[in-house]
Structures are given as C-alpha cells and as structure tokens.
Specification:
There is one protein chain. With about 280 residues, the protein is an alpha/beta fold. It has a single domain, classed as Metal-dependent hydrolases (TIM Barrel, Alpha-Beta Barrel), CATH 3.20.20.140. It has eleven helices and eight strands. It has an eight-stranded parallel sheet with strand order 1-2-3-4-5-6-7-8. It is globular.
Length: about 280
C-alpha cells in the first residue's frame, strides 16, 4: 500500500472526475492521499475533501507565491482549520524566488513611469525585497503555528535555499519539515537530513534529465523520504505531459525501487512507515 503524500485534489483539474481518479488510485495500491492547501480557500476545500472521503487527509497552509493574495487574519483562519481531526500538517509553506515581481513590472507601463525618477535595478530591489520579506514572515508564522499545534510542516523551496535554511534553523528540534518535490543536490539533502527534516520525491525521478534527483534517491536513508505526485503537475513517464493523478504514486515508487536496487514492496513499506510517523496518522 502507498500514500500519495502531496496532491492538489482541490484544483479544478479534478472537478470533473475526482471519484474516478480516486478509484484508479485504489486499484494502483494508493490507499491514502494527502491533499495540500495553498491558501485559505484552497485549505478550506482540502478540509472539505478530507471530510467527505475516508482515504483523504488534508494539509492547510499558505503557499509562498500566494502570500500577497491573502489579507486579514489569515493565520487565525488557518489555526481554526488545523483543528480538524484529519488535518495532518501545516503547509505548503516556504520560500519561492523563481519569478520575482520585478519580472512582471519589467514590461508594465507603471515601471516605465517610475523609471523617470528611479533606476530600474533600484525599483527591482525594492519590490523583490518586499516580496521576499512577506514570504519570510508568512513562513515563520506558519512554523510558529506548527509548533503551537504539534504538527509538522510541508515545505516548498524554489531558488531560495539559503534563506529557507536560515529561517528553519531556530526551529531545529521543535518541528520537522518535509521538503516536497525534492530536486536539490545530494549535499543539500544531507544538510536538511542532519537538521531532522526529510524529503519526498515526485515523478521527476522518472525524467531522463533528472540524474541528480536519482542520485539523491540512491543515497537518502530508507526512513528519510516519502513518495508523492504533486498532481496535477509532474506526471511521471510514460504519462509526462498529461495530468498527474494519485495513481501515479505507484510509478514513482517503482522507479525509486529500481534506482535503489530493491522492490516496490520494500519501498511501499518504508514510505508508509515514514508517512504515518511524519503526518501522525493512525
């Protein structure tokens, strides 16, 4: 049996055939799915799905790229959602610097007007700095909430490694994180494992252009990783380019077994134990 530890079942991609997708997952041996919130409304939908389906658990949080979309007392709303008995963690939270706001401003008329008074690079520093600060504040607030509630965190990190680690350091021993969709270098995997965190792998492990991911798969301890799809994204080969869905967790696990020179059954047993411990599932 397998758990898809990171899915986005509340997305419109699954609106038309969620029940069929869940049945395909069951037939593939995926008996449990953790659907991840990316904002307040997404988190509410995740909790509603967990309420409706026995096989689904929820994670509630604010994705770093969505921090500017939330207003008001969003943290207290998350606190309330997190009291639901099927909420298994806080997240996904973290830092994402991949598409800074200065990219959007670069082609806007507003920036052209501003450039009459301010150099472009100075304006970029201001807007990007504000964006990063907002992400950091939201990340820290959700880490504090996880500590308060005794939950672990699902971490999103993209092009923000050093800042992510610096924010996490004071929480070492207080809360654990899973770096989902891990695609960084082996030494970075070792760094976070030493801090008590774990990683999870997606369909990227099957991609021809992902040898570094497979290198990490081969070296990470058996009790320090989980499997996920991040569906509807990152469908594994032979479904690349199509919508990913929870049933594809089996393909991810099969590839990990191949890379590690073991069996699907062994990977399933190990990742189930890790998922049950990390998400505190009964």
């Amino acid at each position: 049996m397998l758990t898809d530890t990171h899915a986005h079942l509340d997305y419109p991609d699954f609106a038309a055939d969620l029940d069929a997708a869940l049945e395909r997952a069951r037939q593939a041996g995926v008996h449990r799915i953790i659907t991840i919130g990316t904002g307040i409304e997404s988190s509410r939908r995740a909790v509603a799905l967990a309420d409706k389906y026995p096989s689904i658990y929820a994670v509630v949080g604010l994705h770093p790229t969505n921090v500017e979309e939330e207003s008001g007392d969003w943290l207290n709303v998350l606190r309330g959602l997190a009291t639901h008995p099927k909420v298994a963690a806080i997240g996904e939270t973290g830092l994402d610097y991949h598409h800074p706001p200065s990219e959007r401003l670069a082609s806007s008329p507003a920036l052209s007007a501003l450039q009459a008074e301010m150099a472009e690079d100075t304006e970029a520093m201001i807007v990007d700095g504000s964006y990063r600060s907002a992400q950091a504040e939201a990340f820290s607030a959700q880490l504090d909430l996880a500590c308060e509630l005794g939950l672990n965190v699902v971490i999103h990190q993209r092009d923000a490694w050093d800042d992510t680690i610096e924010i996490l350091k004071p929480y070492t021993g207080r809360v654990r994180g899973v770096f989902h969709c891990f695609g960084n270098m082996p030494d970075q995997a070792e760094e976070i494992l030493a801090m008590g965190h774990i990683v999870s792998f997606t369909g990227i492990v099957t991609f021809k252009n992902a040898p570094i991911v497979r290198e990490v798969v081969a070296m990470v301890p058996e009790n320090a990783f989980m499997v996920e799809t991040d569906c509807p994204y990152l469908a594994p080969i032979p479904n690349r380019g199509k919508r990913a869905e929870p049933a594809h967790t089996r393909l991810v696990a099969e590839k990990i077994a191949e890379v590690r020179g073991t069996t699907l059954e062994q990977i399933a047993a190990a990742t189930e134990k890790t998922a049950e411990g990390f998400f505190k599932l009964s």
